[in-house]
Design a protein that fits this description.
Layout lengths: L16 H13 L14 H13 L3 E5 L2 H11 L7 E5 L5 H8 L3 E5 L9 H7 L5 E5 L8 H11 L2 E5 L7 E2 L2 E2 L6 E5 L12 E5 L2 H10 L15 H7 L12 H12 L1 H19 L6 E2 L6 E2 L4 E5 L5 H13 L5 E2 L24 H7 L2 E5 L6 H21 L1
Parallel strand pairs: 2-3, 2-4, 4-5, 5-8
Antiparallel strand pairs: 1-9, 6-7, 6-11, 8-9, 10-12, 12-14, 13-14
Helix pairs in contact: 1-9, 2-9, 3-4, 3-7, 7-8, 10-13, 11-13
The chain binds pyridoxal-5'-phosphate.
């Protein structure tokens, strides 16, 4: 009888006792709103911002309601207006073009490479079409950030980094989120820290930070922030910046602070699991493992492989056969959006765009979550199952 995996691909770990205790403290005093502090008290949200800014080496940090909210706020704060165009990845998840649509702008999609990163040639060829790039480090793959920044700096393009999948990652020793003008992170359950929902925005630019804080719904209480620019910067922007409430509350912030302190250890655990699966998949005929560059420190919270130039029916068969053996794979090439996967042509509020290179690669991308509740033995077993099912379909074809 062939082996079957019985674990869950969506079960994250329980929160630590430190996070539970911190949440209980907030619930015991009841001051959940971030600006509801007593004399001399530093609220959890303000402390979270101060600590994340220090951890990542940014001057300013803002905690908000979600990663998607952080991205739309970043776009507004750098000056994107209704009707503008914004460059972004053709391979990403729906909240990324969604953040562009949220500010009334329209996405210009840039091709994806076989390394699953933004195609820098295509980016350079489209650099005259927009003055902002919403760069999604989709599924944790970092492109050559030195070259990307060279292209964007040369063309006067402001870069916003979507680090939903790269909290804890780095390129050439620089933390993901620190190379563009703004870095946006998600603290939603399937990301690298878990407060259910939540987002973080970092920047070194005082005006962007002040606008983002005003946008998030600070009223005129911005002096209660601990990772914010000086009051005179707010004086310059406060009358022109609308309040579009999307604050983080003290309860979520309390849960996040201990998790951020533990991030480095968790990254190590994710990567052990990722590397176990990757080793099990290497040299499977018909299957391409995604090569990771030397300069990249990644966080293996999900893994992708390519079934390049396979027929859609054969890819679907691999997915169905793995599902029967308990292994949940997602496909980015499906004609219809399903679950969290969709293609750039599923986002029909955007102008139709023709990207044959991306079509070929998207049709080949198979994706799998790697929750920390998997043991290393689970990972080895999952790789064996994928390997045997890919092999069976490949040989039959
Ligand atoms: C690539 C990417 N960017 C941004 C987001 C948005 O994060 P949130 O769910 O916190 O709004 C997600 C969430 O799934 C994502 O996968």
């Amino acid at each position: 009888m062939s082996e079957k995996f019985t674990g869950s691909f969506t079960q994250q770990e329980a929160l630590s006792e430190a996070a539970i205790e911190a949440a209980m403290n907030v619930m015991r005093h009841g001051r959940l709103h971030r600006y509801n502090v007593i004399d001399g008290e530093l609220g959890e949200a303000a402390l979270l911002e101060q600590e994340f800014a220090a951890q990542i080496g940014a001057k300013y940090c803002l905690a908000v309601a979600s990663g998607g909210y952080a991205m739309a706020t970043a776009l507004r704060a750098v000056g994107v207006k209704h009707g503008d165009k914004v460059l972004t990845n053709a391979f990403t998840l729906a909240p990324v073009p969604g953040s562009i649509a949220a500010v009334g702008a329209s996405p210009v999609f840039v091709d994806v490479t076989e390394e699953l990163t933004i195609d820098l040639e295509d980016l350079a060829s489209k650099a005259d079409q927009a003055s902002v790039l919403m760069l999604s480090h989709m599924r944790g793959h970092l492109c050559d950030m030195d070259r990307l920044m060279q292209i964007c700096d040369g063309a006067g393009i402001t870069v916003i980094e979507d680090c939903a999948h790269t909290m804890g990652a780095a390129w050439n020793g620089i933390a993901s989120g620190r190379m563009g003008a703004v870095g946006c992170y998600s603290c939603q359950t399937y990301k690298h820290v878990n407060s259910g929902e939540g987002g973080l925005l970092i920047t070194d630019d005082a005006e962007i930070a002040a606008r983002a804080i005003m946008l998030s719904g600070s009223y005129m209480l911005y002096e209660r922030h601990l990772a914010a620019p000086a009051p005179e910067v707010f004086e310059r922007v406060k009358f022109e910046t609308p309040n579009i409430s999307g604050r983080m509350d003290n309860l979520r912030a309390a849960i996040l602070r201990p998790q951020l302190r533990d991030l480095g250890r968790q990254v190590g655990r994710w990567n052990e699991r990722y590397q176990k699966i990757e080793a099990g998949l290497r040299d499977t005929p018909g299957l391409t493992v995604v090569q990771r560059p030397e300069a990249e420190i990644y966080v293996g919270s999900s893994i992708q492989f390519l079934l390049l130039d396979w027929s859609p029916e054969s890819v679907a068969e691999v997915i169905a056969r793995c599902a029967k053996r308990g292994v949940e794979l997602k496909w980015f090439g499906g004609a219809e959006p399903a679950g969290f996967t969709s293609r750039y042509d599923s986002w029909r509020y955007a102008e139709p765009q023709n990207l044959p290179q991306s079509d070929r690669i998207l049709a080949a991308i198979v994706d799998m979550r790697v929750p920390l509740t998997f043991s290393l033995e689970d990972c080895a077993q999952i790789a064996r199952i994928i390997r045997s099912e890919v092999g069976a379909v490949y040989q039959a074809g």
